[in-house]
Write a structure and sequence with these properties.
The complex is a heterodimer.
Chain A (H helix, E strand, L loop, with lengths): L1 E2 L4 H4 L1 H21 L7 H21 L1 E4 L3 E6 L5 E6 L3 E8 L1 H5 L2 E8 L7 E7 H11 L7 H7 L4 E2 L2 H10 L3 H24 L3 H31 L3 E5 L2 E6 L4 E6 L4 E9 H5 L2 E8 L10 E8 H11 L15 H28 L4 H25 L5 E4 L3 E6 L3 E8 L5 E7 L7 E7 L4 E8 H10 L13 H10 L9
Antiparallel strand pairs in A: 1-2, 2-3, 3-4, 5-6, 5-11, 6-7, 8-9, 9-10, 10-11, 12-13, 12-17, 13-14, 15-16, 16-17, 18-19, 19-20
Chain B lengths: L3 E2 L5 H30 L11 H12 L1 H6 L2 E4 L3 E6 L3 E8 L3 E7 L2 H5 L2 E8 L3 E9 H12 L6
Antiparallel strand pairs in B: 1-2, 2-3, 3-4, 5-6, 6-7
Helix pairs in contact in B: 1-2
Classes of the chains: A alpha+beta, B alpha+beta.
Chain lengths: 495, 153
């Protein structure tokens, strides 16, 4: 059996130290509060020794090997763990490197199956070449010589600096704005209000408005930088019908995906990207990709036409440019409108009620939160109705495709052969409109249609040839080579 | 197979116990909070009236229990398991039989008294549904039927 790289001892100390400090925070805080916040040297030494001991223990006790039909992993001293994962159940094998691991030229390998929630097996850390070889052996492509392949292989997709910058600037960073709102604005709102209350009303209003603009721009910039660091160096290789995707400047992720395991596709484009006719394509399998996320990017900020061709390559025969789109039922928009208005009304009433009973800074604080809630709810309703002309679904012989969104439009698809179950929900007041909410789920991913009539549902069920199993994954690499020779490869290149 | 079935009628005892437990606890929590607000925070007396909300919701649940049982159906076809339930909002779930990975039984003390189990159906990706109040013998048959046949990954 194989062992981990000796750098495991050093690389695993920091995350273990962080966990130990987090776990012991209550003790530290408690002793400080109780007035015993004097000498903590003994405690720090204890944590350091335990962390080092556990790091050495991980290196010494972990063993792993690849057998004929499974991968074996043993670890632990007092509590021992012996895990075996059948090779055929492996969905993804991902390689990650944080900054420290890149310095030591080692990497963490995550092995995922469909049943696990996240990674089922984590090897932290292996030497980088060993990690890549281990991944190729697990996925059955080990006959390739690593050195030869890297010399002749051309990436299928790359992201140059110009497109990386434009993609970062035009991407949807609303999440960063919301996170910034809760981590910066709300804790600091008391200070802002105190400062503004000492000014004349027009100056206070100007300060407040300027603060909002600076905050939004700052959050957006933070989103741009995060995108740049996350997707810098983005490359996709397709070899032996295996997608290998790598990206990341500080924390590098390397994903290896079998195309036969892809069960979900998500094509996204923001409003500025639509003007530039660009889109990004992400795919999902039955596993997730650990800390790299639930979806894997296969094309970022590419020409929209090329993105559509990529989709046809991944889901054979699915042509996004030639779909018979049907709109969501109007009752869906009505219900969302009522729900949004009700949320805004209840929030307003609750906010005014609480503010009227609060003292000191309370009312101002509550009104600021209320402002953000109403702003977000209003933006969502606006986006919903702006997207109405383009929202819709299409049923083909290959897949169910759903398009929705305005500021951030997504086209999602699940192949019919990958559908596991369907959920149809109908409130009684929708029955006379012959409309239901419809959701179809694969192993891990789901597609939701806001309002679908019974004719479309019945058509989809009839197409769902449940007695037809998905094509089996070829066992030998030779078969994979043969299939790749007869299949046209999709090339997306950037000049 | 292919017949429309319902949970056993004795499941109503289980559901009654669940409704009384859940909304009873909510009633106590809301009552406790409103009394605390009344005594310690100088809240007006009418806040105690909030405790009536879980009582009303619980009473409505009990009132519609028979209708809820009447609307709960399941059916095994050659390729699917179909489950339908719901009074105000109708839920229908269709599961491909060749995707079902395993079937579990859950039972509480009231269920065991009436020889009833909840049949929980799992696919590789998720728990897709629970058929409540099935007689143990019928549940074993269901498990055999659902687990038979070729499964896909």
């Amino acid at each position: 059996m194989n062992r981990l790289h000796p750098a495991t001892i050093i690389v695993s100390i920091l995350p273990r130290l962080k966990e130990a400090v987090q776990a012991s925070l209550p003790v530290i805080i408690g002793s400080v509060v109780a007035g015993k916040g004097g000498n903590h040297d003994w405690f720090a030494i204890f944590i350091g020794l335990m962390t080092g001991f556990l790091a050495i223990g991980t290196y010494v006790t972990t063993r792993f090997s690849i057998e004929t039909d499974h991968v074996a992993h043993k670890s632990g001293w007092i509590f021992r763990n012996d895990r075996r994962i059948p090779l055929e159940q492996i969905q993804n094998v991902n390689i990650r490197q944080n900054l420290l691991e890149r310095i030591f030229k080692v990497a963490t390998v995550d092995v995922e199956t469909a049943m696990g929630k996240g990674r089922d097996l984590k090897l932290s850390v292996l030497g980088l070449a060993h990690a890549e070889r281990f991944r190729e052996e697990l996925l059955g492509a080990a006959h390739l010589n690593l050195a030869d392949r890297t010399q002749v292989e051309e990436p299928l997709v790359t992201l140059n600096q110009h497109d990386l910058f434009l993609g970062a600037v035009t991407e949807n960073h609303l999440q960063q704005v919301l996170v910034g709102m809760f981590t910066v604005i709300i804790p600091g709102v008391g200070w802002i209000i105190t400062l503004a209350s000492k000014q004349r009303p027009e100056v206070a209003a100007l300060m407040f408005g300027t603060g909002i603009v600076v905050f939004v721009i700052g959050s957006w910039l933070w989103g741009v930088i995060s995108y740049y660091l996350k997707f810098g160096g983005f490359k996709v290789y397709q070899n032996e019908q295996l997608f290998r995707i790598s990206y990341g400047i500080i924390n590098r992720a390397q994903l290896a995906i079998r195309p036969g395991r892809i069960e979900y596709m998500n094509l996204t484009t923001t409003l500025p990207q639509r003007w530039m006719k660009r889109a990004s394509l992400h795919i999902g399998t039955a596993g997730s990709f650990g800390e790299a996320g639930v979806l894997a990017p296969v094309a970022l900020f590419v020409d929209r036409k090329r993105a559509y061709e990529s989709v046809s390559g991944i889901f054979q025969g699915l042509n996004l440019e030639d779909l018979d789109w049907q709109p969501f039922h109007p009752i869906f928009y009505r219900s969302r409108l009522y729900r949004g208005l009700l949320t805004m009304a209840l929030s307003g009433v609750a906010g005014v009620f609480l503010a009227s009973h609060a003292r000191g800074m309370g009312p101002s604080f509550i009104y600021v939160i209320l402002f953000f809630i109403l702003m977000i709810a209003g933006a969502r309703l606006t986006g919903l109705f702006l997207s109405r002309p383009e929202n819709g679904f299409a049923i083909t012989d290959q897949a169910l495709v759903v398009r929705r969104g305005y500021f951030h439009q997504t086209i999602s698809a699940i192949p019919i052969t990958r559908m596991e179950n369907m959920a149809i929900t109908q409130p009684w007041w929708w029955k006379r409109f012959d409309c239901s909410r419809f959701q179809v789920q694969g192993m891990k991913h789901r597609v939701f249609v806001g309002g679908m009539n019974s004719t479309s549902i019945d058509r989809l069920i009839s197409l769902w040839h449940i007695d037809r199993l998905p094509a089996p994954i070829p066992d030998s690499a030779t078969e994979l080579v043969t299939e790749s020779e007869t299949t046209e490869s999709q090339e997306i290149t950037h000049s | 197979m292919d017949e429309l079935e319902r949970p056993d009628h004795n499941v109503l005892y289980i559901w009654k116990a669940e409704v009384l437990t859940v909304w009873g606890i909510w009633f106590l929590v809301v009552l406790g909070c409103s009394i605390f607000a009344l005594l310690k925070l100088d809240a007006p007396a009418w806040v105690v009236g909030f405790a009536a909300i879980p009582v009303i919701i619980g009473a409505l649940n009990l009132f519609f229990l028979n209708m809820r049982w009447n609307r709960w159906t399941f059916q095994i076809t050659p390729n699917t398991l179909e489950m339908s339930h719901g009074v105000v909002v109708r839920h229908r779930r269709i599961v491909a039989r060749n995707r079902i990975q395993h079937v579990d039984f859950n039972s509480g003390p009231i269920g065991r008294k009436f020889d009833l189990v909840h049949v929980v159906v799992h696919t590789a990706g998720a728990t897709v549904g629970t058929i409540p109040g099935v007689r143990t013998a019928r549940a074993e048959q269901l498990r055999t039927e659902l687990m038979s046949g070729q499964k896909s990954l």
